[in-house]
TrEMBL record, chain A:
InterPro entries: Sof1, WD40/YVTN_repeat-like_dom_sf, WD40_PAC1, WD40_repeat_CS, WD40_repeat_dom_sf, WD40_rpt, WD_repeat_DCAF13/WDSOF1
Residue span of region Disordered: 1-21, 411-434
GO biological process: maturation of SSU-rRNA from tricistronic rRNA transcript (SSU-rRNA, 5.8S rRNA, LSU-rRNA); protein ubiquitination
Classification lineage: Eukaryota, Amoebozoa, Evosea, Eumycetozoa, Dictyostelia
Keywords, comma-separated and alphabetical: Nucleus, Repeat, Ribonucleoprotein, WD repeat
UniProt-recorded name of the protein: DDB1- and CUL4-associated factor 13
Species this protein is from: Heterostelium pallidum (strain ATCC 26659 / Pp 5 / PN500) (Cellular slime mold)
Sequence ranges of Basic and acidic residues compositional bias: 7-21, 418-434
Automatic annotation (TrEMBL), chain B:
Residues covered by the BING4 C-terminal domain: 440-495
Location in the cell: Nucleus, Nucleolus
Family annotation (PROSITE patterns): WD_REPEATS_2
Signal peptide extent: none
Biased composition (Low complexity): 1-25, 151-164, 604-622
Record carries keyword rRNA processing: yes
UniProt-recorded name of the protein: WD40 repeat-containing protein
Organism: Heterostelium pallidum (strain ATCC 26659 / Pp 5 / PN500) (Cellular slime mold)
Protein's gene: wdr46
Gene3D superfamilies: YVTN repeat-like/Quinoprotein amine dehydrogenase
Residue stretches of each WD repeat: 420-461
Gene Ontology biological process terms in this record: maturation of SSU-rRNA from tricistronic rRNA transcript (SSU-rRNA, 5.8S rRNA, LSU-rRNA)
PANTHER family per the UniProt record, alphabetical: WD REPEAT-CONTAINING PROTEIN 46, WD-REPEAT PROTEIN BING4
Length: 447, 642
C-alpha cells in the first residue's frame, strides 16, 4: 500500500523571509480556469470602458503668440523642443518639459511661411512673405536670447514653405519655383519648375534624402530628385493638396492632406491609385504629420478638429477638438510620438496626448504588462458589437456630426451608383462622359 | 489497409508502454485488469468495424493498451523499457545528420516525452485522453503518423520524404492539445490574401501558445496525491486510520477530528479549498480554517440549516433555512434575509457570475446576483427536488428530481435546456466532473459513491484561487472578481460562444444577401428535372417506410429504445456501481442523440475498482429522453451587456 497526499506548508508557498518575493503558483491547465472566453470578454469590455473614463487627451495650451500660428517644426535632436511661426512674423521656441517658451524672435514682416531646423540643430531657418530667408544661430542646450542673424538669403518672390535635408547643409524653399539652397551660398543652387503654377509646399523624404515632394496651386504633386535638374513625375488630383507627409519608416509612402476633405496615402511607385483614402474630416485638411513610428498620422483641418488615423485603417482613431480651438493650420507629432501639437487661428498651440487615455509618466513593468494585455483583449473582441460601439463612439460638435452624416449619405449613394452602373452593361457611356471622367480622375504624368 | 493498421497499433503499444513505464506499475496492473474485459469486447467490435470500414479506428492510445493487455506479453515490454528508451536515444543520435533542420522540433519532442511520462502519473490523464479522443479525432490521425515516425526513427529509416516533414511541422504535440484555445481553422478556400494570412497567422500563434504552455508544465514541481493498492488489496477497504499511518510526517500532523453532534451536515469549501463551512440539520453553523486549525465562526441558528454555501470568498456565506435563505458574514452576523428565495432546499454559488442559486421545495429555481442584490431569473419546475449541482465549466445548474429526471437549467431560458431521464428511482446525489464533461448521478436504487474529480489538483494557481493569500491579495482579488463579473445571460451550454462567428449576424453583407434572396422570383427558378425525380423517389420511400412501420411496429426503432428493451431483459442482473458508469454521459462533448451512449473509461477504472465482475454487463440502463433541445436558448450567440 502506497499513499501520497498533497501536503503544503504555508512557508513554502508564501515568503520564507519577509524580504522574499512572493512565489506565484501557476497551473495553466484549462480546467483550472473555467469561463476563460467570457471572462476575457468582460475584461475587454471593462478595458474599453476604462479607456473612455480616462480619455483626457488635452494637456495644455501654450500661449504667447499674438497672431494665428501658421507653421511648426520639431527639433531634429532634442525631444522636448519645437519651434512655431505665426502670421505676424514671430518665431517662438518652446520647451515641452516645462511647457514654457524659450525664445522669441521677430523674424519677418508679414507671415512666417515656413521654418526648419538645420541638420545639426544649432540654427533655425525661416522664410516669410517678405521675400527673405533668415538663418538664426541658437546656442545649445538652452536657447536663451542670443538671436543673431547668421545669414540672410534674398529671394525674388515671397516664399511659401521651407524644408531642410536631414544629412547636409542643403535646404529647399518654395515660391514660384522650387529652389534648393545651401547655407554657404547666397543664391540658390538649383531652381526647379514644371508648369507655371506656384508651389505651396516642399517636403524632403526623411529616408531618401534627395527626394523632394512639392504641392502646387494647380492641384499637382510633383516629385523631384534634387540630384537631377528635372523633376521625376507628377500627380494631378481632383482638388488642391495642402500638405504632404512622407512616411518616416517606408520611404515610398506619401500621405496627402487634400482640399476635398480627404487624406490619401500613395505609393510613389504606383501613383495611379491611392493605397488608402481617409474620409473622416468635414473641412479641407490643412496639415498632416506622420508619427515618427510610421504607423499613424495626424491631420489638422478647417473643420476645427484634429484627427489621428492609423495607416492601415480607413477611419480615424481619435478626434480632438475644444470649444475655443479655431481652424487648425499646422499639426506636429513630438519625436517620441507621445504628444501632438496643434497650432490654430486662435493664437494658441495646444498639446495633446496621442493616446487619449494613456497615462503620463513612467509606468511600472506590471502596469505596462497589464496595458498590453488589455490592448490584446480589445483587439481580440473588437468586432463584438457591444465593444465596437463603445470603442468607436466619439462625441463631436453637432455641426460636424451632421456634416459627416450627410457626407456619408452622399458617399454611399455615389458608391451605389457606381455599382449599379456596373450591373447594366447595356448602358454605354458617351465619349464626352468618358472624357469628363478622365479629367476628374487622378492623372499621373512622367517626364 | 487492415494489416498495416494492426501493425501500427502494435507499434503504438510499444511506445505507449515505454511512456507509461515511469508511472507505477501496480496502478497500471490494476487498470489493466479492469480494462481487459472491456478491451475484449471493444476489440471484437473493432475488428468487425475494421472489416466494414478501414478508417474507423479509435485513438491509438487506448488501443495500444488494450492490445497489450490482451497479448499478455505486456510485462516483457514494460520491463525492457529502459532498453527501449536507450535505443530511442541512439536512434536519435544516429539520425541526427538527416534531421538537422528539425533539431528544434526534436528538442520539443524530448520535452513532450518527459511531460508525457509525468502526465501518466496523474490520475486525470485518462480523462484528458478521453476528451481529446472524442473531440479531436482528426488530430489523432495526425498523431498516428507522428508515432509512426517515431518508430521509423527506431529503425533508423531514411525514408523521410517531404510529406513527413510537412506533417511534422504542422502537428501539435499530444500534451499541448489541451491548451489549444478554440480550433485551428484551415485557411484553404479563403480568397482574400490578407484574410488568409491573418487566419494562418492566428492558427500558428494558437499552436505556439499551446506548445509553450505545455513547456511551462516543466516548472510544476508539486505532484498529485494517489492511493496505490497492492495485489490483494482494495482501495475501498481503506480506513482513515490506514491513511494516517501511510502518509508522511508533515501530513500526519494535520490530522484532526471534528465531533459533530447536530445531525446530518451539509458542507462547502471555498474555491481555494482552505475554509470549510458546516451547516447542521439542527441549526449548527461553523466556519473553519482547516489548514491552520482555526475556527472562524460558530453559531446555533434557531431554524434548521438545510444547505449552506460560501459566496465569492470566506467572508460571506448563505444558509438555506426553513423559510428563506439568509446571508451571514464570517463573524456570524446575519447580513441579509433573501425573501425572494422561499422554502429553499439547495444552494449553490456561481463564482464568476456572482449568482447565488437556490432551488426550493416549492418548485422554484432562483438566481440572485449578490453583487447588486437583485433576482436575475426565476424558473419553476414541477417535480419534488432531490439533488442539485452546478457545472463548473459552463455554470449550468443540474437539478435532480425524485422521479429520476435530471434537468439542466440556465438563467435565460424558462425551460430546461436539457432533460434527462437518468434513473427510474429518485436521484439521491449528483455531481459533474471538473472538466464539465461528465455528470455523475446516484439513484435510490443502489449504493452511491460520489467521485468528486476536483480533489487532488496538486498544482494550484495563485491567480485563480490562492489558499495562502494574504489580506492585500484577497482584497485585490475580490475587486477583480467583481470587475470581471460575467453577465448572467451569457450562461449557455457552450461557454466559449462569445467571440465565435455568428453566421446569421446582421452585417451589411448578410443584409444585402437577404434582400437579394427576397428579390429572386421563385416562379422563374427552373428546377433540375433529375433532382425533381430524386425528391419524388425519396418521398415515396419515406411513405413506404412509414407504412411498414405502422404495420410491423417496435422491431426496428432507433437504438435508444433498443437499449431500453435490453435493460428490461437484464433487470435481474446486479446493478451496483456499474449503474454509475452507465449514467455518465458526454453531455457536452457529444451530439445529443447518440445511438450507443459512450462509456468514459476513466470512470470505469476509477469507480469500479470494486466490481470487476460487473464490468461485463455494463449495459446502459439509462436513457436520454428524446427531448427536443430548445434550440432558441442553446444557440443564442449574441452576448449582451447589462
Amino acid at each position: 500500500m502506497k499513499i501520497k497526499v498533497i501536503s503544503r506548508s504555508e512557508e513554502d508557498h508564501t515568503k520564507e523571509v519577509s524580504t522574499d518575493a512572493r512565489k506565484l503558483q501557476r497551473n495553466l491547465d484549462p480546467l483550472m480556469h473555467p469561463f476563460e472566453r467570457p471572462r476575457e470578454y468582460v475584461r475587454a469590455l471593462n478595458a474599453v470602458k476604462l479607456d473612455k473614463v480616462f480619455a483626457k487627451p488635452f494637456i495644455t495650451s501654450l500661449h504667447g503668440h499674438t497672431d494665428g500660428i501658421f507653421t511648426m517644426i520639431r527639433h531634429p535632436t532634442q525631444v522636448n523642443c519645437f519651434a512655431s511661426g505665426s502670421c505676424d512674423g514671430v518665431i517662438k521656441l518652446w520647451n515641452l518639459s516645462t511647457m514654457n517658451e524659450r525664445t522669441t524672435i521677430q523674424s519677418h514682416d508679414g507671415f512666417v511661411r515656413g521654418i526648419c531646423f538645420t541638420n545639426n540643430g544649432r540654427s533655425i531657418i525661416s522664410c516669410g512673405e517678405d521675400q527673405t530667408i533668415k538663418m538664426w544661430n541658437l546656442t545649445l542646450p538652452e536657447y536663451e536670447s542670443e538671436q543673431d542673424v547668421a545669414s540672410i538669403f534674398k529671394g525674388k518672390s515671397s516664399f511659401t514653405s521651407i524644408d531642410h535635408q536631414l544629412n547636409s547643409t542643403t535646404f529647399a524653399t518654395s515660391s514660384v519655383n522650387v529652389e534648393v539652397w545651401d547655407h554657404n551660398r547666397s543664391t540658390p543652387l538649383q531652381s526647379l519648375s514644371w508648369g507655371h503654377a506656384s508651389v505651396t509646399k516642399v517636403r524632403f523624404n526623411p529616408i531618401e534624402y534627395h527626394l523632394l515632394s512639392a504641392c502646387t496651386s494647380d492641384r499637382e504633386i510633383i516629385l523631384y530628385d534634387i540630384r537631377e535638374s528635372t523633376p521625376a513625375q507628377k500627380l494631378i488630383t481632383k482638388m488642391r493638396t495642402n500638405a504632404t507627409a512622407w512616411n518616416p519608416r517606408e520611404a515610398y509612402m506619401i500621405a496627402l492632406a487634400n482640399e476635398d476633405e480627404n487624406c490619401y496615402q500613395y505609393d510613389i511607385r504606383n501613383l495611379k491609385k491611392a493605397v488608402c483614402v481617409y474620409r473622416d474630416h468635414v473641412g479641407s485638411v490643412l496639415d498632416i504629420d506622420f508619427s515618427p513610428t510610421g504607423t499613424e498620422f495626424v491631420t489638422g483641418s478647417y473643420d476645427k478638429t484634429i484627427r489621428i488615423f492609423p495607416v492601415e485603417s480607413y477611419s480615424s482613431r481619435e478626434v480632438y477638438f475644444t470649444n475655443r480651438m479655431q481652424r487648425i493650420f499646422s499639426v506636429l507629432y513630438t519625436a517620441d510620438s507621445k504628444f501632438i501639437m496643434s497650432g490654430s487661428d486662435d493664437m494658441n498651440i495646444r498639446v495633446w496626448k496621442s493616446k487619449a487615455s494613456g497615462a503620463l509618466g513612467i509606468k511600472s513593468a506590471r502596469e505596462k504588462e497589464k496595458l498590453e494585455y488589455q490592448d490584446k483583449l480589445k483587439e481580440k473582441f473588437k468586432e463584438i458589437p457591444q465593444i465596437k460601439t463603445i470603442a468607436q463612439h466619439r462625441r463631436v460638435p453637432k455641426a460636424i456630426y451632421k456634416k459627416r452624416y450627410l457626407k456619408n449619405v452622399m458617399h454611399n449613394s455615389q458608391q451605389r451608383k457606381i455599382k449599379n452602373e456596373g450591373k447594366t452593361p447595356s448602358k454605354k457611356k458617351s465619349v464626352a462622359e468618358k472624357k469628363k471622367l478622365l479629367q476628374e480622375a487622378n492623372v499621373v504624368v512622367e517626364k | 489497409m487492415g494489416p498495416t493498421l494492426n501493425k501500427k497499433n502494435n507499434n503504438n503499444a510499444k511506445t505507449n508502454n515505454k511512456k507509461s513505464n515511469n508511472s507505477s506499475s501496480i496502478e497500471e496492473k490494476n487498470r489493466k485488469k479492469l480494462i481487459e474485459d472491456l478491451a475484449k469486447q471493444r476489440k471484437q467490435e473493432e475488428e468487425e468495424e475494421e472489416e466494414d470500414d478501414d478508417q474507423s479506428y479509435d485513438s491509438e492510445d487506448d488501443d495500444g493498451q488494450e492490445e497489450a493487455a490482451d497479448d499478455n506479453v505486456n510485462d516483457k515490454h514494460w520491463k525492457n523499457t529502459n532498453q527501449y528508451s536507450n535505443q530511442d536515444d541512439n536512434a536519435d543520435k544516429d539520425g541526427g545528420d538527416q534531421e538537422d533542420e528539425d533539431e528544434d522540433e526534436d528538442d520539443d519532442n524530448d520535452i513532450v516525452k518527459y511531460l508525457n511520462n509525468k502526465r501518466k502519473n496523474s490520475e486525470f490523464d485518462l480523462e484528458q485522453q478521453q476528451t481529446s479522443k472524442n473531440i479531436k479525432q482528426e488530430d489523432d490521425d495526425s498523431e498516428n503518423e507522428s508515432d509512426q515516425e517515431e518508430s521509423n526513427n527506431n529503425n533508423n529509416n531514411s525514408n523521410n520524404n517531404g510529406n513527413d516533414i510537412k506533417s511534422k511541422q504542422n502537428r501539435i504535440p499530444t500534451g499541448a492539445r489541451k491548451y489549444m484555445k478554440g480550433e485551428v481553422v484551415a485557411a484553404t478556400g479563403i480568397k482574400n490574401p490578407v484574410l488568409r494570412n491573418r487566419v494562418e497567422r492566428q492558427s500558428k500563434y494558437k499552436k505556439e501558445a499551446a506548445i509553450s504552455a505545455m513547456k511551462a508544465e516543466i516548472l510544476i514541481q508539486s505532484e498529485s496525491g494517489f492511493i496505490e493498492a497492492d495485489e490483494n488489496e482494495n482501495t475501498y477497504d481503506l480506513k482513515q486510520s490506514d491513511i494516517v499511518k501511510a502518509v508522511d510526517m508533515q501530513s500526519k500532523v494535520k490530522v484532526f477530528d471534528l465531533t459533530m453532534e447536530h445531525g446530518p451536515y451539509s458542507i462547502d469549501f471555498t474555491r481555494e479549498g482552505r475554509y470549510l463551512l458546516n451547516a447542521g440539520e439542527k441549526g449548527h453553523v461553523a466556519v473553519i480554517d482547516w489548514q491552520s486549525g482555526k475556527k472562524l465562526m460558530e453559531t446555533h441558528l434557531s431554524q434548521p440549516a438545510r444547505d449552506a454555501c460560501f459566496l465569492h470568498n470566506e467572508s460571506m456565506f448563505a444558509v438555506a433555512q426553513k423559510k428563506y435563505t439568509y446571508i451571514y458574514n464570517s463573524q456570524g452576523v446575519q447580513l441579509h434575509q433573501l425573501n425572494s428565495h422561499p422554502d429553499p432546499k439547495y444552494l449553490t454559488f456561481l463564482p464568476y457570475h456572482f449568482l447565488l442559486v437556490s432551488a426550493g421545495n416549492r418548485g422554484s429555481l432562483v438566481y440572485e446576483d449578490i453583487s447588486i442584490g437583485s433576482v436575475v431569473a426565476r424558473h419553476s419546475f414541477k417535480y419534488p427536488l432531490s439533488a442539485m449541482c452546478q457545472n463548473r465549466q459552463n455554470a449550468v445548474i443540474n437539478l435532480g428530481y425524485t422521479n429520476g429526471n435530471v434537468d439542466l437549467w440556465i438563467p435565460k431560458s424558462k425551460e430546461p435546456v436539457v432533460k434527462i431521464l437518468a434513473h427510474k428511482t429518485s436521484i439521491t446525489a449528483m455531481t459533474t466532473s471538473l472538466s464539465g464533461n461528465y455528470m455523475i448521478t446516484a439513484g435510490l436504487d443502489r449504493i452511491v459513491k460520489i467521485f468528486d474529480l476536483r480533489a487532488g489538483q496538486a498544482q494550484y494557481d495563485s491567480m485563480e484561487a490562492d489558499p495562502f493569500a494574504n489580506k492585500r491579495m484577497k482584497r485585490e482579488a475580490e475587486v477583480h472578481q467583481l470587475l470581471e463579473k460575467i453577465p448572467s445571460d451569457m450562461i449557455s451550454l457552450n461557454p466559449d460562444l462569445v467571440g465565435t462567428i455568428h453566421s446569421n449576424a446582421s452585417t451589411e453583407e448578410n443584409k444585402f444577401r437577404r434582400e437579394f434572396k427576397k428579390q429572386v422570383d421563385k416562379n422563374r427558378v427552373q428546377i433540375d428535372p433529375s433532382k425533381l425525380k430524386k425528391w419524388d423517389e425519396a418521398k415515396k420511400y419515406r411513405k413506404e417506410k412509414r407504412e411498414t412501420e405502422i404495420l410491423a411496429p417496435s422491431k426496428t426503432r432507433d437504438a435508444l429504445s433498443q437499449n431500453s428493451t435490453e435493460i428490461t431483459g437484464d433487470r435481474s442482473s446486479k446493478r451496483t456501481t456499474s449503474s454509475l458508469q452507465a449514467l455518465c454521459f458526454h453531455l457536452f462533448s457529444q451530439p445529443p442523440y447518440r445511438t450507443r451512449p459512450h462509456l468514459p473509461s476513466d470512470l470505469s477504472s476509477s469507480s469500479s475498482s470494486n466490481n470487476n465482475n460487473n464490468n461485463n454487463n455494463n449495459n446502459n440502463n439509462s436513457q436520454i429522453e428524446k427531448y427536443p433541445f430548445t434550440t432558441t436558448t442553446a444557440n443564442i450567440v449574441k452576448p449582451s451587456v447589462p
